[in-house]
Structure formats: C-alpha cells, structure tokens
Amino acid sequence: MEKWSLMAITVLLALTVRWTVSLGSYSGAGKPPMYGDYEAQRHWQEVTYNLPIRQWYFNTSDNNLLYWGLDYPPLTAYHSFVCAYIAKLINPDWIALHTSRGYESQPHKLFMRTTVFVADLLVYIPAVILYCFSLKETSTKKKVSSALCILLYPGLILIDHGHFQYNSVSLGFALWGVLYLSYDWDLLGSVAFCLALNYKQMELYHSLPFFCYLLGKCFKKGLKGKGLVLLTKIAGTVVVSFAVCWLPFCTDMEQIMQVLRRLFPIDRGLFEDKVANIWCSLSVLIKIKNIISPQTQLKLSFAVTFLSLLPTCIKLTVQPSLRGFKFALVSCALSFFLFSFQVHEKSILLVSVPVCLIINEIPFMATWFLLVSTFSMLPLLLKDGLLLAYAVTTLAFLSVCVASFSIFEKTSAEDLQLKPFSLSLKGYVSWFKSFPKIVRSLFLLSVTLMGLLSVMSAAMHPPQRLPDLFPVSVSVISCLHFLLFLVYFNVVLLWDSKNSRSQKKIS
C-alpha cells in the first residue's frame, strides 16, 4: 500500500510541474503569418474536421500544404479529429475552415494545453508507472525514485507542455511496447509499437531494436518449431495493425503514396535549424548542403547510419535479452539522431526516453545524458520564451536525481557497467584506477559549460558578424557529448556479459 501512496504523490508532483509549465508561452505565440507548432496542431484539427479523409494529405484550395500541411501518420490525424470534435462542441470558431487560421485566445490555449495533459495522463504516465513497478531485483524506493526522475525529465515536459506537441503519445505507445515485451507478451508489444509508429514516423528510430529483439527470440526458439510459429504470429499482428490504421487510406494506391510522400519529404534537406547532430556540426566547417546534392546527402546519411547501427543490431539478434534490448533502443536511436537524414532538434527525445528506462541501472550517465539532451534544445526553448521553465525544471531534475540515486557515488567502472570492458583492457590502460575521479570531473566541467552557455545565450547579444554564435555553440557542444555517449552505450552493450546469461533464459 505504501508504494502506491508514494507513486500517487509522484504522479501528482509530475502533473503539477506539467501544468505549471503549460501556463507559459508556446511555439509561435503572436508571431504571424506561420506562428508555430501550436498553430500546426490547431490547423490539423481544422483540416481533419472540415475536410473528407481523402483530402487530408492532398494540396487543395481548402488545404494549403505549405501552411502546416499534415505530415504525420494516420493516428495523429485521427487524434486531431477527436480533439477537433470536442473543440467544435466548446467553440466552433476554434476550428472554422479558413477563418480560424492563427486563432489565439486564453480559453483556446486552455483547451489545447488540456489535450496534451490528458494524452500524457492516459498514455505516457501509466506506462512509466507500470514499467517502474515491473523492474526486477529493485527496491520500492528505487522504483519510486526511477518513476520520479523519468516523469520529471525536463526535455519532454518543456517540448510537450511548453513548446507544444504530443510526443508523449508516440513515446508512451513505444514504452507500452517495451513493457509488454518485458512480460513476454510479444504480440501486444508488437501492436503497441505499431501504434507508436503510426502516430509518429520518427519512431523508426526504435524500429530496429524491436525487430532484432523479436527476431532473435524466434531464432532461439528454433525456426523449424516454436520460433516459426511466433514469427508468423508477430508478422500477422504487424500486418493487421497497420491495415487497421491505414484502412481509410487504402481506397487507392495514390492515397497511400501521397501519405508516404508527406511522411518522408526528402526535399527539406539534411537537417533543420541548429540541431545537435554530426551534419549540422560539420556544416560549421564544410557547407555540406551546398557541395553535395540532396540525393547524395540522403545516400551518405543512410550509409553512415546503417554502419553505426550494425554492431548493436547483430549483437541483439544473436544474443536477445531484455537488458540488451533497452540499451539497443538508446544506441540505435542515438545513431539515427546523429547521422540520419532530416533530423529535428526535438528528435533527441526519442533517445532520451529509452535512457530514462535505464536510469536505475546507470543513474550517473543517464542523468548526464538527460541534462545534455535538454540543453541541446536551448535555442528552441529560448525562441519560445521558456527560459524560466527550462532553468527551474532542469535544476529540479538534477536535484532529484542526486538525492534519489546519489549519482556522484556511482562512478566506478562497475557502476557505469564498464567492468567487462576494463578487464579486457587490463594491462594496456592504467588510468582505470582513477576513472571515477576523472568521470566526476568531466561531469562537473560539462554542467558548468552548459550553465555558462545557457546564461550567455539568454543574457548576451552575439557579435553582428556571428549572429548564430550561441545556437551553433550549443549544437556543436551537445553533438560532441552525444558522440561520446554513443561510444559509451555501444561499449556497454557489446561488452555486456549479462546479455549471454539472460539469453540462455530465453532459449
């Protein structure tokens, strides 16, 4: 009973923080003619309610795709329609065709914020709570602490309840998938991930770990017996799930192709804004967009992404384990973020939520990564007027992690899951004895640097000849962090001896 009381307090605290952040500004507030993501979500409600389904993704006189045209999968469109139906009951002006463009008012802001709040409460938060309760060999205190840290992660709160998006829905469905797989409910896990992928196409970042883990389980069961049966069931479940989601668009092939063109536009370029990935960082020195054609950029990013994913995917397929699966979610998503095509700064959330899932195992590195991921979105948050919310939620999150997990005491090679790797280097590297001190020093240096750059970005004007100095600095510094984290997570996964023990249980 005590653990449920503690978890209820945790949820109430998380909801309070979310609602407090939602009282602030949002993307594009009072900035015509395009406004921002808030207007994009409102416009999708307008389109889905007033136009027939066959016109949702097509450019028409009533649906100008250049003005926030729908570019997410069908489940997002259906969600927009449900929100629009409720909005119509409250105030039809909010979604009136054409005339509602750029609509802003306090009652409407309250309605829009509530839709995000309810989606979070229905999909994401229950998944987090049940996931933390499912953690094995973990005390009640650790389970509650994990839930508190995950639910107070500032990046997701600031983007969904500040900037304004519904990332908690797709990430929540993905988390339900992880939860179901942890109980060996593979078909339900497949359905949950299909829902995530059909809500936001960026869930492709997580697709390979799901695929490789389930395929590895089938291999271990034997593809001439139970494994083949399981593989057939999973394949059938995926096909049926997609068919149900896409059914209204299956009237003709042109409908399907148009939706796909909207979901995967290659004409937008390699990256947008000042995203903390390798291509944006390299463009400081080499203007990749100017010297390489879009088609070549696409092929290059695909090749580099594929090569960076390969070791993790092979390891997970050959030695499937739940622990390896969670680390693979982190590693693969981070590879996609750093090297893939058309990456947005908000896509780092697809890495951050899997990192949240392993915060009880490597609290020090997880906390560090989650702080950097929030910092990497600083230019966007400043543009939205969310400086105060960013500062308060970030400091609160760091304080909670320090108090809950004593992270500065968890910096040994064993605590960081690097013991197998350090043993393989024994005799070659002598500095592993002072490793904890080095890691703590690097963390403090990193946090200090992020703090200084945050203050400078908010309080100082850049030189006239370098107007993007601060956003670019944030991008490059964050990217360097992420590259080091990618190496770290791959080392932990590839040298992990626990995977082979877990894998024997599966077989």
Q: What would your notes on this structure say?
A:
Helix content is 69%, strand content 0%. The protein is an all-alpha fold and 507 residues long. It is globular. Mean pLDDT is 92; it is low at 499-507.
Low-confidence segments, given as residue ranges, are: 499-507
Q: Helix fraction?
A: 55-70%
The description of the largest β-sheet is: none
- Order of SSEs: HHHHHHHHHHHHHHHHHHHHHH
Strand content: under 5%
Average pLDDT, all residues: 92
Q: Helix- and strand-based class?
A: mainly alpha
Shape: globular
Report Rg.
Answer: 23 Å
Please count the beta strands (DSSP E, at least 2 residues each): 0
Cα distance, first to last residue? 36 Å
Number of helices: 22
Q: How would the blueprint of this fold be written?
A:
Blueprint: H1 2-22, H2 37-50, H3 74-90, H4 106-134, H5 140-151, H6 154-164, H7 167-182, H8 186-197, H9 207-246, H10 253-263, H11 278-282, H12 288-291, H13 294-318, H14 322-339, H15 349-357, H16 363-375, H17 378-383, H18 387-405, H19 419-424, H20 435-459, H21 469-494, H22 498-506
